[in-house]
Design goal:
Low-confidence stretches: none
Mean pLDDT: 84
Shape: globular
Number of strands: 0
Largest sheet: none
Radius of gyration: 21 Å
Order of helices and strands: HHHHHHHHHHH
Strand content: under 5%
Oligomer: single chain
């Protein structure tokens, strides 16, 4: 057991170094930082304009609603960046080593194949968690400093976004044990696209009271729970009933706690499946 933990730690450190060498994580941090600065400027001027044009009796509530709406919109961009960074950094983590035959050097004794998958997952999971926390706290900090708005459940929203990143990571890493890098990327983005459209279909089904549309949306979220988890995180960022329109920021229908449990088992299950798949594969 101690030896396995040591081997997993070695792979985790190598994963960090590989991510630094490819510079994708640094690019993601740079783009995220640029977005936070742009968001801060836009939020500041919108805030000032609202203060000047809204009567004093309605100013407090108007700023509260505007701050919640803009924070949710900004976090939606952060959510998208989390998914993109997760996929782009891990999509070829195993498949590229198989195609280049470097896996033979890594998978030699005493390192076992399941330890490779676990080590890589932990390395990427740590990076994704750090990225999610930094970007989310930066955006919430901007809204707090300028608008004085604190979302109802900021910690819950943060944890749900981390879970979303980990779920996408498990899908991508599992695909990397089976498919080529290009094919894996296509499959993961297609799953994300289906879940994204399914989320809209479910919300429309709730608004027009169509059970078929709701069921289709729920079924699509089971393939990849990313979009559904985003809606749950969004509900933690805004007051109840803030938005009634059909937008990416609307929460006409949000997942239950049972879906969060499903997402946890989904993430763990695909990780274990990826460990088993690589252990059984011939290369």
């Amino acid at each position: 057991m101690i030896q396995s933990l040591h081997q997993i730690g070695v792979i985790t450190r190598l994963t960090f170094r590989e991510a630094q060498r490819r510079r994708l994580l640094w690019i993601g941090l740079g783009l995220g930082g640029a977005f936070v600065i742009l968001f801060a400027l836009g939020f500041y001027f919108i805030y000032q304009d609202t203060v000047q044009h809204v009567s004093e009796s309605y100013r407090s509530e108007a700023m509260r609603q505007a701050s919640a709406m803009l924070l949710t919109a900004g976090m939606y961009v952060i959510n998208f960046l989390i998914v993109m960074i997760t996929v782009l950094t891990s999509v070829g983590s195993i498949s590229s080593e198989i195609s280049s035959n470097t896996i033979h050097a890594i998978a030699s004794k005493p390192i076992r194949r399941w330890e490779i998958v676990m080590g890589k997952w932990l390395g990427f999971a740590t990076m994704i968690t750090i990225y999610t926390v930094l970007m989310s706290l930066a955006l919430m900090g901007v809204v707090l400093i300028i608008g004085g708005y604190v979302p109802p459940k900021p910690l819950a929203a943060l944890l749900i976004l981390v879970l979303e990143g980990l779920a996408v990571l498990s899908v991508t890493l599992f695909g990397s044990t089976l498919l080529s890098t290009l094919a894996n990327g296509v499959v993961v983005f297609m799953l994300y696209g289906v879940a994204f459209i399914g989320g809209w279909v479910e919300q429309i089904g709730v608004i027009v009271n169509s059970q078929v549309a709701r069921d289709l949306g729920i079924a699509s979220s089971l393939l990849l729970p990313g979009e559904a988890l985003w809606r749950l995180a969004a509900s933690c960022l805004q007051p109840p009933g803030l938005m009634g329109s059909i937008t990416p920021f609307a929460v006409a229908s949000q997942p239950t706690q049972a879906f969060v449990v499903y997402s946890l088992f989904y993430t763990l299950g695909l990780l274990l499946l990826g460990m088993w798949t690589l252990s059984q594969r011939d290369f």
